[in-house]
Design a protein that fits this description.
Layout: H1 10-24, H2 28-33, H3 41-49, H4 56-65, H5 71-89, H6 113-116, H7 134-147, H8 164-167
Length: 168
């Protein structure tokens, strides 16, 4: 079994979870059925195989099902999870939640009706308020499931300037 103090990266955490899984020898289905576990068997499989990264709230009950229930041991595993999660956040790239300027995401600037007609209007200085539509709930569902470790995909189709990027 891997010492949680040695976990620094997502890959380290995956190896540690794989070691626990092999050491305890309990099927994904039995783990998912254990008291307090809310993760599905395929979700746990994704963590053990390094396909997905667990949220602590979902990993904690699985660790308990593996017999790690002492507060000190759980604290070490939570610290390991935090280190692995923080390491990932510091990789290249920018989280969408950190982008405050919608134009940085290439959202089209709004235009006034007179500029659309070519009568000397201009571009509006800011975006109008976003009006949520039915597809926003569907997109939010895909994102929530992804945060819980279940991958998914959503494809937005629409003409130019219909709000696809802003829906994200």
């Amino acid at each position: 079994m891997i010492d949680p103090h040695e976990v620094r990266t997502r890959e380290d955490l995956q190896r540690a979870l794989h070691s626990l899984y092999v050491g305890v020898a309990v099927s994904y289905h039995k783990l998912a059925a254990a008291a307090g576990v809310t993760a599905a068997p395929n979700t746990i499989h994704g963590w053990v195989q390094g396909i997905t990264f667990p949220r602590w709230v979902n990993l904690d009950p699985v660790l308990r099902a593996w017999g790690i229930s002492e507060p000190g041991a759980l604290r070490m595993w939570k610290d390991a999870h935090t280190r692995a999660s923080d390491e990932f956040r510091h990789r290249p790239g920018v989280s969408l939640s950190e982008i405050l300027d919608p134009f940085a995401l290439e959202v089209h600037e709004t235009i006034t009706a007179s500029s659309a007609e070519g009568r000397g209007g201009g571009k509006a200085e800011m975006l109008p308020p976003y009006i949520a539509r039915a597809h926003d709930d569907l997109l939010a569902g895909v994102v929530e499931r992804a945060l819980d470790g279940c991958s998914g995909i959503a494809v937005m189709l629409g003409d130019s300037s219909t709000g696809k990027t802003r829906a994200l």
